């Protein structure tokens, strides 16, 4: 993986990671603001500035913190949220509410009310009960809500089955079925308090092949044509989700955004031209591809155990609580000893976490310089779905997050404290 080394130490966006580990303690998430901004710049160049009437809505589930919302806002992007918690984070960060869109296959009434009260830009309907609910709330509050329908495009996706979402048998989306979808669309078009904009899909995540996206665009455009034919209604917006893959290890490919977006846009533009259809706005929702490679995690090495002829276990002071992806998706990562970043590999080890769980293995069989206690291990590409999926299992603390930017480092999330772990707990009188 690409890295900068100075005096044997790994630098991250100009900051000495060994110093960061010393100053802020480990485990520590470190994000490079410059890399996040570079990815946004690529998106602007390959999409926003290249095509008319297109938008990027960062999928905040990948990494949702107030500082991140500020970065995204400064890029002029919109924001996708999935829960009251993600919405709250965005609002507290001062994110313009009209640029927020909310997804979710089971939004609660409270989440819908909160979204409508604040005036979110779009609600993406993902259940058969939602149109009625939104219409009722909107009517009561005398508001009009922009709505898209998330459809299940029924494409099979070449990624881990746990993160593919567009196949027929999925909890996500409204099935493209005569008797289910069209009555709902008709209802949304006619419902009071609802402005029906169009369709949304998200085929899956961590893709390095554009075929699923392209297949889904075809399906969405067929649907657009069908809606015109049956209901004489022209949609004004299509949302193609996220899913663009990143590099976790040297084996992964990160395709340029244009690899996905150019042929997708070509299909949309060709359709509009052929059908004489007004070009709908096109929105994408990248999460991982904006933040994954910008983040690293620093851990300190403690216990070292050699099983002769089997393997050498090197244990870190965190694990699946700060990165559940290896345990959950068999995700592969790589890393370096941040304090020996200029030394050649000398041994093969397995990096294990400290959680009471056999699947708590961060990296299996990695070549590193001779590993010693107190070395700092830096895992690459942990920026997406690391902090956001962190847990307090075994009552470990959620680590701090530092934002590095050209040699300057700022804490953007403080490390949890032991008292915070129990602050919501109550001992009933009978047990006192
Ligand atoms: N839009 C929708 C509606 C989504 O469901 C997702 C991800 C995204 C956008 C962003 O996708 P991205 O560009 O990040 O691939 N925890 C899993 C990933 C789950 C993604 C779920 N939806 C992981 O760690 O791989």
TrEMBL record:
Keywords: Amino-acid biosynthesis, Decarboxylase, Lyase, Lysine biosynthesis, Pyridoxal phosphate. It comes from the Bacteria. GO terms for molecular function: diaminopimelate decarboxylase activity. The keyword Transmembrane helix does not apply. The modification N6-(pyridoxal phosphate)lysine is found at residue 61. It catalyses: meso-2,6-diaminopimelate + H(+) = L-lysine + CO2. The keyword Lyase applies. Its EC number is 4.1.1.20. Its cofactor is pyridoxal 5'-phosphate. Pyridoxal 5'-phosphate binds at residues 243, 285-288, 385. Pathway: Amino-acid biosynthesis; L-lysine biosynthesis via DAP pathway; L-lysine from DL-2,6-diaminopimelate: step 1/1. Residues 36-292 form the Orn/DAP/Arg decarboxylase 2 N-terminal domain. Substrate binds at residues 288, 325, 329, 357, 385. InterPro entries: Ala_racemase/Decarboxylase_C, DAP_deCOOHase_LysA, De-COase2_N, De-COase2_pyr-phos_BS, Orn/DAP/Arg_de-COase, PLP-binding_barrel. Belongs to the Orn/Lys/Arg decarboxylase class-II family. LysA subfamily. Specifically catalyzes the decarboxylation of meso-diaminopimelate (meso-DAP) to L-lysine. HAMAP family: LysA. Homodimer. This is Diaminopimelate decarboxylase. It comes from Candidatus Enterococcus moelleringii.
